[in-house]
Amino acid sequence: MFPLEQWIIEKRREFHRYPELSFNEYITQKKIIDSLKEFGVEGSSIAGTGVIAEIFGNGPGPCIAIRADIDALPIQEEETNYNSSYISCNKGVMHACGHDGHMAIVLGVARFLYEKRHEFPGKVRFIFQPAEEQYPGGAQMVIENGGLEGVDAIVGLHIFGDIDIGKILFCSGPFMASSNDFRIKIKGKGGHVSTPDYCINPISMAADLIYRAEKEVRQQIDPSKYVFGFGMISGGTRFNIIPDEVEVCGSFRTFNEKDTKTIEKILDKLLTSIIKEYSVEGLIVVPSYELNVLHGYPVLVNDSNFTAAASRLLRQKYADVDDTASPVFGSEDFAYYLKYVPGMFFFIGTRNLDKGIKENNHSSSFDIDETVLIKGVEILSYIALDFLKKPEVYVQ
Q: Which of 6, 16, 122, 242 is such that its CA lies 20 to 30 A from the CA of 77?
């Protein structure tokens, strides 16, 4: 095993032992800064608990940023997971999404490129971003704090447990979906179930909405281009009392703004229609509704030129590259960076059934095959060096 590979494995395990939740990554921040100092790079804080650092090449040139997310999840790790020497020490908190690996990989890239700094022009900026897991996320704070100033391109990666070890997946254009949540309050008129003629049942209206909304969305949008569903309904206090109000909540994900707007219009139109249908002449109370849509992370769109150049490069070096992967319905705040500068985001697999590594991200038994770490270092280093030497191929 090469010294760099052993170093990044040790770093990953160290991060895994001390996971921290979004915007509370204080120990993590210090560990990153101390790790950078080990090989002569100064890191400074950004976005509260994040870290930013730069490595300068042998002269003027472009700047490429490489990003790692650093927060963990509120999950209790299985006691049987990993070697006991590096299982999570923080009760109820776990690196169950691979961010410990992301940090180790990007630190490995920084260490490798620092040793090669006399061989390339321009500079590389390293962004260790807090709070990817918790909306509104840390990416916008990084941007607001100048994290992308002077950056010509950006690249990031994500380890995935449902992809075979070492396989590289990405595509040009929309790659990850936007995330949108909605909350609806439906107000009727409560009363005893024995006197329904004097009531307007909001539960019935909610049931009508749920059935009709899912049907209407399916008719207007290609089912392969969205996910939509209701996840919560609450209201009422007893089995024989019709409540005054019911709340229903749900979520939907799309790959473009047009479909997002279509779903919002469907909900609003159906609610207006249902309220009208359930209105009862002679009753003082008129049913009503409140619709609130929370727009989360936007669609992550890989730049076509950058992605094509990176694909050509990676195909020369690896056989397991899928550059026409189907977009996924997961969401990522890396999408915000790509709204400002060209670049790409890709997945790298860590599933290895021979080693018993098979759990998906966000599982309390999530594990990674640590051989993925050095490959992540290689991929990001290849892309960064190639971009710095011929940026015109990547950005047009």
A: 6
